[in-house]
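Example for tutorial group B:
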């Protein structure tokens, strides 16, 4: 009887804890924004919105692990009217557009009039999200304040940095462009070459044709010494990547061929490599195999990446039939295999030579593939099939 009573007490205790937690758990109010703003006005609290997507793993982790944390729940219930908005629904898309949400999860802090006070994006721990939410309650940390301070003195680098650093928390770099260029317009070319101005350029400049980016390119050696070659190269590569990415939204090989000259003119090793990989992708997307042949003939002999050479060789096998074109691809891949032999590489070489009609070279590659497979204890069926067909 005592054991039964003890067990019953434990069950009741666990049930009461569960009920208490479940009562505390509903952090997010599901009401529409106008009702939330009214509720916030009555409570004299700002609104906290989490904008999420059901398919976003970071969103699900935040909802299931962070916003179920009792400490987080207590803090937000005390200081905010909180809601979660599915950004993929019709009403959620309106919220996304209104508050310039560019990625999930996004966290928007707004006042009772719907004005943005603070923005965050990405995954945070429980303590991190509490810390940021505390910052969002302080007037001097809020976007309207730092924006007003900057606009009152747009030539002040510290105020510009404070503004764009606060904007950066929302991870929408498009919002940084206007204040960045407003400040940089107050700086002469010579003044651009400073650590502070580099920080502003690195964070806020994204236009490949902008005066500031072109100045960095022309004075790369000076910026390398002032900052570091790694950081300067990373900034250049990021801008080039963003510039090239836009042409894949509506792929057009003719438009791309003209605009790529902007990147080609930069003529750095890293940007040339980026351009080549984008050229390959654009040629594949648009199925322009003449362009593909042109760019691979120019660059493939210098490529050290065997995986990339295999991809190129496969496309040659699938899309070309003339002997000279096929055998160029085979020779590029063969040169790579001399350094690091690979079964799938030898098989591909054998198939290309077989298609070109060079049975002797096809047999040679197939025998190499068979030997590799035997030594490694692999199935050599594909090599044997090629040998049999020859």
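The residue assignment follows.
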């Amino acid at each position: 009887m005592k054991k039964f009573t003890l067990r019953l007490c434990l069950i009741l205790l666990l049930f009461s804890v569960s009920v208490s937690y479940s009562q505390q758990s509903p952090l997010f109010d599901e009401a529409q924004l106008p009702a939330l703003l009214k509720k916030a006005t009555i409570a004299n609290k700002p609104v906290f919105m989490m904008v999420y997507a059901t398919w976003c793993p970071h969103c699900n982790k935040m909802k299931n692990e962070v916003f179920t944390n009792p400490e987080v729940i207590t803090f937000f219930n005390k200081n905010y009217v909180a809601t979660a908005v599915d950004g993929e629904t019709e009403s959620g898309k309106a919220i996304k557009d209104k508050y310039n949400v560019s990625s999930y999860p996004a966290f928007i802090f707004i006042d009772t009039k719907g004005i943005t006070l603070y923005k965050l994006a990405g995954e945070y721990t429980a303590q991190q999200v509490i810390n940021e939410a505390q910052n969002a309650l302080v007037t001097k940390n809020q976007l309207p304040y730092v924006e007003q301070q900057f606009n009152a003195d747009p030539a002040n680098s510290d105020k510009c940095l404070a503004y764009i650093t606060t904007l950066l928390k929302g991870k929408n770099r498009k919002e940084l462009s206007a204040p960045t260029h407003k400040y940089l317009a107050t700086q002469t070319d010579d003044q651009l070459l400073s650590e502070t101005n580099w920080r502003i350029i690195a964070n806020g400049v994204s236009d490949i044709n902008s005066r500031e980016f072109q100045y960095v390119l022309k004075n790369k050696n000076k910026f390398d010494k002032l900052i570091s070659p790694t950081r300067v190269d990373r900034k250049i590569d990021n801008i080039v990547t963003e510039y090239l990415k836009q042409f894949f939204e509506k792929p057009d090989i003719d438009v791309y061929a003209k605009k790529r000259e902007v990147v080609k003119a930069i003529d750095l090793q890293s940007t040339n490599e980026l351009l080549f990989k984008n050229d390959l992708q654009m040629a594949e997307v648009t199925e322009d195999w003449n362009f593909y042949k042109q760019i691979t003939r120019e660059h493939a002999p210098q490529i050290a990446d065997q995986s990339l050479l295999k991809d190129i060789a496969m496309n040659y096998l699938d899309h070309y039939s003339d002997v000279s074109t096929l055998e160029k691809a085979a020779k590029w891949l063969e040169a790579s295999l001399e350094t690091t032999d690979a079964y799938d590489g030898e098989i591909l070489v054998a198939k290309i030579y077989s298609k070109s009609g060079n049975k002797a070279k096809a047999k040679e590659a197939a025998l190499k593939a068979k030997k590799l497979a035997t030594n490694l204890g692999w199935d050599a069926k594909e090599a044997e099939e090629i040998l049999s067909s020859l």
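The beta strands are 47-52, 81-86, 106-110, 116-121. Compare this with the pattern of hydrophobic and polar residues in the output above.
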